[in-house]
Amino acid sequence: MHLLLRGQDFHFEMENICRLFLPDEKIVTLYDTEDDGSFPGLTVTGTLTNEGGKVHLSVRLHIGDTDNTLTDTLPETADKDTCELGMTTLLYRLLCDWLQTSQPWGLVTGVRPVKLLRRLTALHGEEAALSHFRDRLLVSEPKLKRLHTVLHTENELLALSRPDSCSLYVSIPFCPTRCDYCSFVSQTVQRAASLIPEYVEKLKEELAAVGDMQRKLGLRLETVYFGGGTPTTLSAEMLSELFQVIERHFDLSHVREYTVEAGRPDTVTEEKFRAIAAAGIDRISINPQTLQDPVLQAIGRRHTVEDFYNAFHLARRCGMNNINTDLIAGLPGDTADGFARSLEGIVALKPENVTVHTLCLKRASNLVIRRREDVQKAADTAGMIAYAGDRLTESGYQPYYLYRQSRAIGNQENIGWSVPGKSGLYNVYIMDETHTIFGCGAGAVTKLKQPGSDYLERLFNFKFPYEYIARFDEMLARKERVISFYEQYR
Fold this sequence. Notes:
single chain, alpha/beta, Double Stranded RNA Binding Domain, pyruvate-formate lyase- activating enzyme, nine-stranded mixed beta sheet, five-stranded mixed beta sheet
């Protein structure tokens, strides 16, 4: 499709609105170009003019015999954000009419709608903020209700953070295999096994340096999170070595939550769980994504449903009393009934956390690269997400964090659910960008949060393990910025 912009440059949000309805379309954006009928396929023209003391907005949708236009007029004093919202609203309404559908999240295209609602509430009050989401952003009532609930749960958790708080993220970018829906920069063990020992040694060195900075600055470490990849691809001995480095170099006296992802059931052993428990780690994730063996095979997971159950029960026997499990709605080959059975199986286990994701068709994933056509339709996925919300609420879980991703099937969301008192703090802090998060390991990003403001400064580690190892000294030198960053505000 072609997007023609005349008299304005609202390409980012207008392209995002187009992707909500046409996620697979390649968008070609042109400026100050007329639609003369020569463009193939769909053409959208957005025009802004100033005449007679007014701002005039117009959006035209043209494809074949279909040619529709909507217009609006704003005061001459309208600012850029108001004009952009007016333009995207016209585009949204045209696409809804043309395709005879609407979007559950309306005009919201950002990852962090809860953060936006919180900001608008602080500026204008809760009722005005909710009205803005409902009347201007056209968010559906079910999504707005969920958003409102999450806002209040998150606010209680955010109140635990202080201006001198921080968190630690540790990246283990290795997996036993690559799932078909995944686009993370991670390496399969078969390909990268030779890198793992040296990677762990470098990671220990980086953790030691960052821990010494945390102590020097007197920051309160609130949460620690081992993610990936799959951290439990490492041996029990390697995991223990990393835990010991953190214990030696970081001040852990204020830590409220310590999480290790054991996402793939085929990577866990009793020895690894014992090592995790011995380090005092109080939260793990074991993520089946589905409890349907044919679906597991379809997405490239080399474990069975029985493997998941065995891993879960093993974790309980090893003393794990805060377990998260993930499910994904909309996986290839899954059905509404199959998803419901998976959820029932999870609920019966009574994990403390359940995260329900919507399948996201990421461009670098095998699902997209191989043009898989058997993914679930939007209506089926929406039904799965709605069912999960109802069933988990009935089972005593509450939604505690929510985020969105582009190219999610049906424009649905990801929600973390927990029993009271077991919400995942790190998940909330990273979504809200509450405080500084130190990122260690390949692909990790350190986000330095200026105390008392929303300003963030990012320090990027090299993405791939071989880069991380080869350019380690260069990467570690970047971390020296941490000290000077905080010294500005002392």
